[in-house]
Amino acid sequence: MSSSKDASNSKEVWRRIDDKAPDYFALSDRIWHMPELNYQEVRSAAEHRSMLEREGFRISDKVAGLPTALIGEAGEGGPVIAIMGEYDALPGLSQEAGVAAVSPVEKGGNGHGCGHNMLGSASLLAAAAIKDYLAANGLKGRVRYYGCPAEEGGSAKGFMVRAGAFDDVDIALCWHPASFSGVSRPFSLACVEVEFTFTGRASHAAAAPHLGRSALDAVELMHIGVNYLREHMPSTARVHYAIIDAGGIAPNVVQATATTRQLIRAATLSEMWELVARVKKIAEGAALMTETQVAARQLSGDANLVGNRPLEEAMHANLQALGGPGFDAADQAFAAGFQKTLSAEDIAASYARLGLAPRQGEALNDEIYPLGAGSDTSVGSTDVGTVSWVVPTVQCRTACYAVGTPGHSWQLVAQGLAPAAHKGLALAAKAMAGVAADVLNDPALLEAAKDAFAAFRAQNPFANPITDDVEPPLDMAAH
After folding, report:
1. What's the pTM value of the predicted model, to 2 decimals?
2. Distance between alpha carbon 183 and the CA centroid of its chain, in Å?
3. How far apart are CA 122 and CA 128, in angstroms?
4. Do residues 173 and 428 lie in contact, with contact meaning Cβ atoms separated by under 8 Å?
5. How far apart are CA 162 and CA 411, in angstroms?
6. Smallest Cα–Cα separation from 283: which of 229, 369, 232, 223?
7. Across the 479 residues of the chain, what is the mean pLDDT of every consecutive 10-residue run?
């Protein structure tokens, strides 16, 4: 902290978080039990809305026309502080809590394999504590909780940015569950998700194959073309795919339609759009080879993450003052059971992503890693990136599960109700609320954050990857 006054302000808001935490642990647990996919988070959003009502926030529903997006605001005048939460789950990751073996609650069901049950709950907890802090101290300022659906490929924050939901925000805060606690190097991949639908001609695959034009053949040829493209992409770029519609289940019918969904990632927006253009050419080539037609539909898009050094330093200072989550022997023993299901490579990779030396026998890490740790490899994408281009943004990670636990895994789902998850959740809420208190009490910090943001934007023009013609993919979870 920069002064004893700053520490005092943070400690006050941290006490408020301690008082409220049990209710938000319960919220996280309820969301864990109702895993819902992109734009289908009806019950989860309702739970968050109920907590906002209980806390006395002014609520806006269906933000940016998204049925499960909402904003709760409190306070008057002063700087506007956005705290972003998420609550979407992932398909196919249903798993019983606390069981260190594959054991779905529902075969083929959903699960919180990225910890968003914790993510939204901690963010709302931080917002509620800041709301009370503003009122108790008679401070000018507004805190907003942004309930953001569909982070897992739906780019809800990009649609919210396009609708102007962040236009008057001064700073934005968020976090993510992890195996370690700290403020990472601000790096993520820009991405866009595009569906390519091929249309051909059905026919009898035995009696008249020459009359058919196979859309599935076109999909397969497109995938081959993209695989050959991989050698000629930047090393940080990625292309992934899923066949959304294979054209049917009858092999004796030439498939007349087929759809592949391509997720295209690169280090910058300009690199990404160049790669998208190349993938589209491959699709056109596949259509030409098979005498089919192809139509492309953009579903979503995220910008790469932009850092803000003054806010990162403030968040790191808060984490250092707080220390780690405070895991005990029972937490370590629980996590050790899950580490036994992981490979040595899983565990080593977890340390390597932050440039840390592996430690033998460490199930849970209870320290704060150095500011800016991390590399340009082994990273994903987030729609927080789009927000970071329009408002100074900072995020932290806090340890909530065993070291080495892969993201988007059944092991992560199974640890989502554990006391360790609650402790990481509380640490994240305190880190975010501490930064908010710093900004409210230190105009120089806010000015420095804005100056750093303005300096970056002066050299880097921005175009939202969610362009005006892209409709929210409210049906994407239906596939």
Report:
1. 0.93
2. 15
3. 10
4. no
5. 36
6. 223
7. 52 96 98 97 98 98 98 98 98 98 97 98 98 97 98 95 98 98 94 97 96 98 98 95 96 97 95 97 98 97 97 98 97 98 94 90 96 80 97 98 97 98 98 97 97 97 94 82
